[in-house]
Amino acid sequence: MDNVTTVGHAHAHADHEHELPFWQRYVFSQDHKVIGIQYAITALLFLLLGFTLMMIMRWQLAYPSQPIPFIGGLFGDANAPGGIMLPEFYNQLGAMHGTIMVFLGVVPLAVGGFGNFVVPLQIGAPDMAFPRLNMASYWVYFVGGVVMLASFFAPGGAANSGWTSYVPLAVIATQGQTWWLIGMTCLITSSLLGAINFIVTMVQLRAPGLTWMRLPFFVWTQLVTAFLLLLAFPPLEAAAFLQLMDRLVGTSFFLPSGLVVSGQALEVSGGGSALLWQHLFWFLAHPEVYVLILPAMGIVAEIIANNTRKPLWGYRPMVYSVIFLGFMSFIVWAHHMFLTGMGTYISAFFQTTTMIISIPSVIILSALFISLYGGSIRFTTPMLFALGFLPMFGIGGLTGLPLAFAASDIHLHDTLYVIGHFHYVVAPGTIFALFAGIYYWFPKATGRKMNELLGKIHFWGSFIFMNGVFWPMLIQGLAGMNRRMYDGGIQYQHVQDVLQWNSVMSWSAWGLGLFQIFFIINFFRSIRNGEKTNNNPWEATTLEWQAPSPPPHGNFLSPPEVHRGPYEYSVPGAATDFTPQGQRS
Amino acid sequence: MGELLGLPVQASAHAVEVDQLIVVVHWIMAILFVGWGAFFLYTLFRFRQSRNAKGDYVGVKSHTSSYLEIAVAVVEAVLLIGFAIPAWATRVNEFPSEGESTVVRVVAKQFEWHIQYPGPDGMFGRTTLDLITPTNAIGLDRSDPMAVDDLVTINQLNLPVDKPALVHLSTQDVIHSFGISSMRVKQDAIPGQEIPVWFIPTQTGDFEINCSQLCGLGHYRMRGFVTIQTEGEFRDWFQEEMAFQGAN
What we know:
The complex is a heterodimer of chains A (about 575) and B (about 250).
Chain A: H1 2-19, H2 22-27, H3 32-62, H4 87-122, H5 131-150, H6 176-204, H7 217-248, E1 260-261, E2 264-265, H8 274-308, H9 315-328, H10 344-371, H11 381-398, H12 401-404, H13 406-412, H14 416-446, H15 452-478, H16 501-529
Antiparallel strand pairs in A: 1-2
Helix pairs in contact in A: 3-4, 3-5, 3-16, 4-5, 4-6, 4-7, 4-8, 4-14, 5-6, 6-7, 7-8, 7-9, 8-11, 8-14, 9-10, 11-14, 11-15, 14-15, 15-16
Chain B: H1 2-5, H2 15-46, H3 64-92, E1 102-109, E2 112-117, E3 151-154, E4 156-160, E5 165-171, E6 176-180, E7 185-189, E8 195-199, E9 205-211, E10 223-229, H4 231-247
Parallel strand pairs in B: 1-5, 4-10
Antiparallel strand pairs in B: 1-2, 2-3, 5-8, 6-7, 6-9, 9-10
């Protein structure tokens, strides 16, 4: 009886779809798949933009104060007179590169894009629990993105105080910072709307039989991520408001008394705390690191199980680890602040929690490595990116160790070592996983596969040049080269021996840009001309592959039921080497 | 390993300790990376589809990885308790006494380092906001008796070798960070606070202060100089500077 009503319901949905006008179906859509694709494409465009900003900055770093070739004239005299970048403009590009990559690129793609598209399908739900909230989440994100972009045209340009917006610098900065704060408020609001929706969906809308320990690992990572977004973002939203008040109405939440700027006493009431902002910021921004990495681990786990044709090794420890990571990520934030004048006890606490949080990360990474053992490994494009993720994330994680000890952090803090460290985590780490996910779920979204040859060229080019960009950062950082140097640090005597890496990194970045063209061509070409596939081209086990490709409104032709765990590959005695979750025995 | 990592010269007493931790940690990183990497490459080769047509439902049965994870945890605990926490504690707790140290105030502002020496009386002259002018950037009150023998320099920090230096660090405007890479010194200057930093220079010569926290458009050129001299040279330098300051 229950089945009949649900099928009828899905059918009604399908009919309903035909009645919807174009703008409701593709623009203000409430369908999780359309919203997921909207998120993904918007986020990919922002990733490209954020990367472009960096490619422009890398010119200045490799060839300080030489005119930017070809495009130098486009930036206007206020930013680059005669095509030569000014430090003001460099700082804008730096702040916006970080902001765009993290808040407008990676998170919306990992959570808004993959979370929206894949999670309801993987749990056998017809849609998200609150479709209107879901639509609102995308459009608030969109507005936040527009505000951020518009800020480049504000007097004095975009925000220029780093993606961290440390006060008092950010409070006395040009108008772009106000736009940044308003943009951030939109982005945070969007994440909150999404997070609530994800949690309710995952708790309430799982298909019959889909118990917690039968959930695909990707769903677990999205669940933990949703809690992180829900609990960690509000402090930054509050902090953004406080900073906005400091800038606009003369409060002094973050401004102590007695500030003198350019020889003039600052006309503010004072009495505030500059460190308060850092605490509020990092209380968000450390869990944010796990928001960036957990969905990536989830994607990689799905793809590894599928392409090794065997169950994930250590599924339960992985699940427990991801939950533990979620909790721990709330009590490590001040390891970003060791050098702000921290005493022994507080620093001992944060060093200890940081060491503890490394253990579940090691467990997850080890489990993924060990999962390969005994497999029948298919080197498909998604698998190459997933495999690339493992050692790259490994480097990212390991280079976190010397930063996690306050004493060694004295030397490495605020150097390019830090930049190398977290870029290894998010660029050849998370972004590789996101590419893996795009190649993997593309057939589900379109009914067509992306081209394997172009995909492999994209992978190898990206893999080599990513390392060309980020490895030298570790070398420069160890030599004591500081981050955020407009001239690439050429004035400093102690880094003269490592300066030559600046041009290596820049050419690698441009090479990396070149190889993304293979992806862009492949992506758009495959939408119309890719090889047509059946519903389950990868012979995968999880529920999304049971739905048609692309899935209709309401997703499944008949309501799925789950009979087993998520990764039943190569089950002894089974007819095929994969036994789908929804298949009756 | 230290040379392989390309760490800068060790021009202070505690630099060895900081580097030791960096080197030990990098050894551990290298071992883990090579170990994981070898296992990774072997499995990719050994279990490729063309060689292993069917996946193994069970996979690895041994508990080696659990032992490995426990080992990692133990090593981390040893590093933390044995090296990292004590090393940090000496930086932030065990300050040398003012009597045995060269005491200076360093006031950061966009994009300069202002250094105030207390002079022979060992007392810093009063500074106040009202007196800040382009030529008196820290607002030193020259009518204060304790200020008479004070020396103020810009971007030039001279210190005697082998004697603890105690720096009282503050900032007038935004957050800066007082970094001397060659001496493994780095401390944020936080508005509204005066934070002490100490180190013992062990080599004479010229070194650099590099602002390590983004402080605005001139951050990249907020560079100061550290000159480490013998006690005698330092005293001569101080006299010369005082005479020069008096003449102006």
